[in-house]
Amino acid sequence: MTIQTSKADKATIVQALNWALDDAMAADDQVIVFGEEVADPEGGGLMKVTQGLSTKYGSRVRSTPISEMAFTGAAVGAAITGMRPVIEIMLMNFLAVCMDPITNHAAKLRFMSGGQTSVPMVIRTMTGSGFQTGGQHSDFLEAWFCHTPGIKVVMPSNAADAYGLMLGAIRDPDPVLFVEHLLSYWTPGEPPERGKAIALGKARIARPGRDVTLIGYSRSMMDLPVVAQKLAGDGIDCEIVDLRTVSPLDMDTILGSVRKTGRVVIVHEAVKSFGVGAEVASRIYESLFRELKAPIARVASKDAPVPFAKHLEAAFLYSHAEIEAAVRGTLL
Amino acid sequence: MNAAPDSRTLLAIYRKMSAIKHNDERFISTMLAGRLSMPYYSARGQECIPAAISVLLRDDDYLVTIYRGVHDMIAKGVPPRLIWAEFAGRSTGTCKGKGGPMHVTHPESGCMVTTGIVGAGMPIGCGLALSAQLRGDGRVTVTNFGDGASNIGAFHESMNLASVWKLPLVFVCQNNRYAEHTALATGTSIERIADRAASYGMPGLHVDGNDPLAVYAAAQEAIERARSGGGPTLIEAMTFRFNGHLIGDSGDYIPKPEYAAAVAADPYPRYRRWLADNGHANAGELDAIDAAIKAEVDAAMQFAFDSPLTDVAEVTRDVFADHAA
Ligand SMILES: Cc1ncc(C[n+]2csc(CCOP(=O)(O)OP(=O)(O)O)c2C)c(N)n1
Ligand SMILES: [Mg+2]
Predict the structure, then answer these.
(1) Domains in chain B: ranges and CATH
(2) pLDDT digits (tens, 9 = 90+) for B217-231
(3) What are the φ and ψ backbone dihedral angles of B277, each rounded to 5 degrees?
(4) Residue A198 within any structural domain of the chain
(5) How many Cβ contacts (< 8 angstroms) between chains A and B?
(6) Is A3 contained in some domain?
(7) Alpha-carbon span B250 to A313, nearest angstrom
């Protein structure tokens, strides 16, 4: 591989994903990769996640024309025959032009065929505000897919999870949307254990605590530890749950934590209304209403398209102060 | 260079056409009698196309078809009794009654996907063909669609992708001159859809879809090209659907003379006459084929109605592999 490890004992998400794809392709010749510019002559992917793979695996790694509908549909077709396509949709907003193969076909063919066929494909995509790319290049649209039975949604926040979850997603017998955060790609973290998959549908307690459960995934996992650290100075002990797999939700881990703390703040970069936070909150209310010590708080982006100007973009996203205030609000 | 079909093949085509026609007629009469309830998109009038193509296909070649696809399924070898059971919502149906007429799947006969989304089968066909290409298993994929579907983006993206990747794929546009209530010229910028192939650097063949010999010759060329690594072909087969867009459609939008001319060109009686006139079979032999087919339709229907309705517990099964969530 051309990608070098930054420090011997650390890994970035770019490296971790590259290793996961390499290891999966080496282990199973039915794993194939395609998407716009993923092959080496075209740069090895927008974020270089697929760099080196086409050189190593030849025609199993292909750059496609700018035809999201065609190549996403092609992944569905190849997956039905038992191949394991991993495709790259350059940015999450571009999923809007290939919703049909995903929601009408990938997610439904197992069911509509009465279990005769399945679609074990992985759709990698990336997004994140903070780059001033405006309204069509930084949305978080995971709720669209969580609202579609038949597809899983994975959103890792660190290198070790990214590696294990990618292996898990490739081995999973059903379609998986795998959302990577643009800001997190180069953050060094614990290196993954090569060859070890993480099963989908399992959240992780990122920080144990007693007083308040903070639930997040993807970008918010960069923010929650910072806020928790600050609040610890005031004697507020936060437990952080990293969902990792957003759908299906790991309710055992979530409810286990909430049973302990009785207070919940859910934080995500996606806009607030009709979002993942609403579903998580509802499920907690359905199970633990009487054990809650305060109403559940949601902190999310404003209900608006992502704006361009730097200060507006910052105002669109939640702030650490908002998270902190929400946590304190549950303790009033 | 391509061989004309021998008598055996010609009769195999006839048998498939007869099976398509007689199952179709029985589906409709059973619906009208109130014993079957479904959105049914009859392909009566188009049976010659898949019948002539599928005698050239291997059992393990892949088929993608659309809501108007029972003819494609039967021709490819999906057992009619499983289709009947599917339409009747029975546990013995191809998909346990969870797919229905728009989503029949039967991998054993190569019928991989039936879609109700116009144009959506073509990208998936690209993927089936990609799989065959990477595995080198020699399978060819046939993806069927209508004239209206040639105006959706998926058609154009797929034609381009298939051409760029030289996929073993045959695009079959069954041009019945209407997309729902929209006449061809109202929605399509070009007279011959086959000409669109030129934009994608692939051969486009325009044939009389009611003529088994013409369809056979085009399919032979396309399948041979696909199987030998020569890439995709677009076949446009001109035809007509006699029972409107779906059962219940009055067909008011079709000018009477056009409809009459289409019925006069009905491929089924026309092919019967041709077979007899050219000494491939006499009327008695063809009647015997039809009688055997009708008995099979009786049995298929009986099988369906004798089968148990699918258990309602199936509503939440097959969503994921593990049946959970
Ligand atoms: C994407 C999409 N748009 C609209 C429809 C509704 N619709 C179903 S069939 C049809 C007409 C398609 O005509 P054509 O492709 O010529 O096929 P035919 O029905 O004539 O066989 C339409 C508009 C649909 N199913 N999918
Ligand atoms: Mg049509």
Answers:
(1) 7-308 (3.40.50.970)
(2) 999 999 999 999 999
(3) -60, -30
(4) no
(5) 155
(6) no
(7) 55
A194 lies in some domain: no
Interface probe with B: pick from A99, A109, A247, most Cβ of B within 10 Å: A109
Which residue in A32, A54, A80 has the most chain B C-beta atoms within 10 A of its own C-beta, making it the best mutation to test that interface?
A80
Q: In which band, very low, low, confident or very high, does the pLDDT at B4 lie, cut at 50, 70 and 90?
A: confident
pLDDT at B324: 47
Does the beta carbon of B149 sit less than 6 angstroms from any atom of ligand 1? Answer: yes
Indicate the angle between helix axes B153-164 and A68-80, nearest 10 degrees.
Answer: 70
Residues A161 and A224 in one domain: no
ipTM: 0.96
| Locus of tokens 């059992």 | B59
Burial tier of A262 (Cβ tally within 10 Å: 0-12, 13-18, 19+): middle
Q: Is residue B117's pLDDT more than 80?
A: yes
Distance from the alpha carbon of residue B179 to the mean position of ligand 2, in angstroms: 4
Q: Is B148 in the pocket of ligand 1 (CB under 6 A)?
A: yes
Instruction: Write out pLDDT tens, residues A153-201.
Output: 999 999 999 999 999 999 999 999 999 999 999 999 999 999 999 999 9
- Are A143 and A262 part of one and the same domain? no
In this structure, the answer to whether residues A219 and A311 fall within a common structural domain is yes
In a domain, A193, yes or no: no
How many domains does chain A divide into?
2
pLDDT at A8: 61
Q: Supply φ then ψ for residue A16, to 5 degrees.
A: -60, -40
Strands A238-242, A204-207: parallel, antiparallel or unpaired by DSSP?
A: antiparallel
A203-259: pLDDT as tens digits: 999 999 999 999 999 999 999 999 999 999 999 999 999 999 999 999 999 999 999
Residue A59's domain spans which residues? 13-184
